[in-house]
Write a structure and sequence with these properties.
The protein has helices at 3-10, 15-26, 58-66, 88-91, 115-122, 143-154, 170-173, 192-201, 243-252, 268-272, and strands at residues 74-75, 81-82, 105-109, 127-132, 159-162, 177-183, 203-213, 223-225, 239-241, 257-266, 285-292. The protein has 293 residues and is an alpha/beta fold. The radius of gyration is 20 Å and the shape is globular.
Length: 293
């Protein structure tokens, strides 16, 4: 069904549910067309290094960077690298970032070290607010201090506010933002629909969501559940939706349309569990979607 027809049907009370019911009725048990996972090839090249504008001596700067624990990887134009587990400069092509954020305000929910906040600021966003709570308050982590460090030495205008996703509202953060970044957060949500409703409440135009996806072989909306430390030995992981469920969650949260940007990485469960990657179609991975207000 093309997007124009889908948009028209969503304006008719009950039409979307009726179409979904027909789809379920005619779907054959072996039909996998509904769950074919598109591949996200990315657009544009990797992000360039961040310019250091503070004038600090390179050797001193390198010492300061090395003393920190990084999750995002920050490459600086003086050759110093804050090496984290996240290949941040390489991921921008698959995040759905526009070439320019000129004239747009940006909210980064679950910002961690703030790499994607700073990239939005570098691309011209008029206001960028980075928010987090969990990792910024985790004992021994330097994530919030890392954000402050990068801001000090690059001069990029990124504000920050410590707030839980469960507390997000226009009143709590000073209004809505044109673009919301919700990257690597949804699978940490014990209440994914509730989280997305909070995100919808602070979104003016669209949200970019990047998340673990699972159950890709199931041809109806489904979520994989990760009890205890099932996923990556991390008890903060809860749910991996398939693409049908991810779209449904976004629509039920109040977004009007979802663009599937596709998988940018496949076989996520095998990767984090250290198992060989199969040659078969992926059951899990990581995907990005753009959900419009």
């Amino acid at each position: 069904m093309n997007e124009r027809l889908r948009a028209m049907l969503r304006k008719v009370p009950g039409a979307t549910k009726a179409v979904d019911a027909v789809r379920r009725a005619v779907a054959l048990p072996g039909d996998t067309a509904a769950v074919a996972a598109p591949v996200n090839p990315g657009t544009g090249g990797r992000a360039p290094s961040f310019a250091v504008t503070s004038g600090v001596d390179r050797a001193e700067f390198a010492t300061l960077v090395a003393a920190r624990d990084w999750f995002h990887t920050f490459e600086f134009d003086n050759g110093v690298v804050g090496q984290g587990n996240d290949p941040s400069h390489d991921k921008v092509p698959v995040m759905g970032y526009p070439d320019s954020f000129e004239g747009l305000t940006v909210l980064d929910v679950g910002a961690f070290d703030g790499w994607f906040s700073f990239e939005a600021a570098r691309r011209g966003a008029t206001d960028v607010l980075a928010t987090d709570d969990f990792v910024w308050n985790w004992p021994g982590m330097t994530a919030h201090s890392n954000l402050e460090f990068v801001r000090e030495h690059t001069g990029l205008g990124v504000r920050d506010q410590m707030i839980k996703v469960e507390e997000l509202s226009p009143e709590a953060i000073g209004g809505q933002f044109d673009v919301v970044l919700f990257l690597g957060v949804l699978y940490h949500a014990p209440d994914p629909l509730g989280y997305l409703k909070r995100v919808r409440s602070v979104t003016r135009k669209y949200v970019l969501i990047e998340t673990v996806v699972d159950m890709l072989h199931v041809n109806r909306p489904a979520l994989g559940y990760y009890p205890g430390e099932y996923l990556n030995n991390d008890s903060s992981n809860f749910f991996g939706p398939n693409l049908l469920a991810l779209e449904g969650l976004c629509l039920d949260a109040g977004f009007s349309r979802v663009d599937q940007l596709g998988l940018w990485r496949s076989h996520e469960l095998e990767r984090v569990q250290g198992r060989p990657l199969p040659d078969t179609a992926p059951i899990s991975g990581r995907a990005t979607v753009r959900a419009w207000v």
